[in-house]
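Input (structure):
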């Protein structure tokens, strides 16, 4: 080993200093504090409150409450994919609706743990920690260190953030999507493309991350949606195409992840878009988001809040929709068109067929939490968010583990 190699090698002190770095410490604290809330809320809720029982309300690990509480609702599909592979039964709810990256990571991890459920929980939680680290770095890049600290606490304590620790894809998608954008902002195009590719095999909305990476490449070469009418923007773009075409070519490969999965579906089931075809089995109506929101909003005003006979989860989802929709305009002004368009797509696409689960879907719309982190410089708002989010996180976790639908 040369002298230069020795000097550049990681020493124990260097590694320790990295672990003490704020971009690791604050995400770690946010992770530990909020995971303690969801673990205690879930555990106490499961043992203290009689859970709902019935057909389809499974318990993967009935003799281990600490593990069992994280497998509810759609978790069964991911566990089925890991254990048995994909299934496609036309006109019936099938596992083919779910994308492969998370089950693949669980499968690989289970080779070490020997337990699929335990492996799923490990993948979910490690992905969350990784996602928080990248989100901190991105928030610091877009704003400052104080905003970054608030951002990671807000997203980790969001009322539906228990999904980050459950057998769901939320945390894995957060990790790969934020990492893709962070590397794009750092102009590390190969890394950005790799993670953008991974987003497209985690969720269909991952193609929106590819769009953000592409827009970032355009922005670095003087072309943006707001300067589209200017001749100099097009001259700059032409210059960029001439001098930086190789990085653009790399970025254009990001959809290969989704295309590879579509090829697998076509070969296995004869339908390359089986993940979309099967959506009809969930009885979601393609009415357009305006009609859907109007339909779901109308009954809210006729419910009896005094007796408690209300659709509380509908109110939760509608509140999440309007929060994200309004915040998108502020995101456009402060963070740019790419972030705002991605946020709008993240709520409008699912809202075209139903408002259900939007309070879960917005968990991964990290531009929302970047803006919340920015707004949280107001001390009163910051305190309200921390207390309100933490309380609701504990309550909704308790509800979730007892087989009551949240999102």
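Output (sequence):
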């Amino acid at each position: 080993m040369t002298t230069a190699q020795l000097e550049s090698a990681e020493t124990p002190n260097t590694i320790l200093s990295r672990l003490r770095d704020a971009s690791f410490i604050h995400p770690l604290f946010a992770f530990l504090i909020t995971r303690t809330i969801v673990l205690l809320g879930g555990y106490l809720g499961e043992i203290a409150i009689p859970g709902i029982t019935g057909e389809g309300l499974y318990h993967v690990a009935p003799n281990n409450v600490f593990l069992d509480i994280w497998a509810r609702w759609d978790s069964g599909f991911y566990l089925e994919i890991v254990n048995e592979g994909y299934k496609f039964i036309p006109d019936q709810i099938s596992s083919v609706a779910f994308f492969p990256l998370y089950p693949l990571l669980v499968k690989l991890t289970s080779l070490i743990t020997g337990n699929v459920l335990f492996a799923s929980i490990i993948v979910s939680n490690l992905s969350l920690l990784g996602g928080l680290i990248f989100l901190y770095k991105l928030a610091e890049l877009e704003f400052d260190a104080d905003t970054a600290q608030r951002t990671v606490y807000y997203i980790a304590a969001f009322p539906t953030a228990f999904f980050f620790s459950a057998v769901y894809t939320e945390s894995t998608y957060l990790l790969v999507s934020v990492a893709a954008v962070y590397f794009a902002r750092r102009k590390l195009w190969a890394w950005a493309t790799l993670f953008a590719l991974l987003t497209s095999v985690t969720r269909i909305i991952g193609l929106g991350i590819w769009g953000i990476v592409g827009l970032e490449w355009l922005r670095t070469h003087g072309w943006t949606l707001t300067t589209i009418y200017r001749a100099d923007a097009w001259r700059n773009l032409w210059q960029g195409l001439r001098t930086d075409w190789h990085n653009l070519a790399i970025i254009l490969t990001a959809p290969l992840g989704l295309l590879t999965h579509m090829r697998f579906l076509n070969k296995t089931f004869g339908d390359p878009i089986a993940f979309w075809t099967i959506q009809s089995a969930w009885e979601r109506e393609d009415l357009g988001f305006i009609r859907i929101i109007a339909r779901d909003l109308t009954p809210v005003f006729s419910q009896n809040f005094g007796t408690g006979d209300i659709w509380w989860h509908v109110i939760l989802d509608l509140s999440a929709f309007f929060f994200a929709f309004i915040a998108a305009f502020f995101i456009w002004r402060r963070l740019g068109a790419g972030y705002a368009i991605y946020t709008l797509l993240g709520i409008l696409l699912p809202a075209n067929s139903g408002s259900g689960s939007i309070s879960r879907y917005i968990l991964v719309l990290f531009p929302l939490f970047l803006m919340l982190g920015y707004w949280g410089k107001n001390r009163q708002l910051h305190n309200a968010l921390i207390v309100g989010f933490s309380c609701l996180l504990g309550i909704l976790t308790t509800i979730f583990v007892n087989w009551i639908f949240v999102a």
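Notes: The chain has a mean pLDDT of 90. The chain has one domain: 20-280+378-401.
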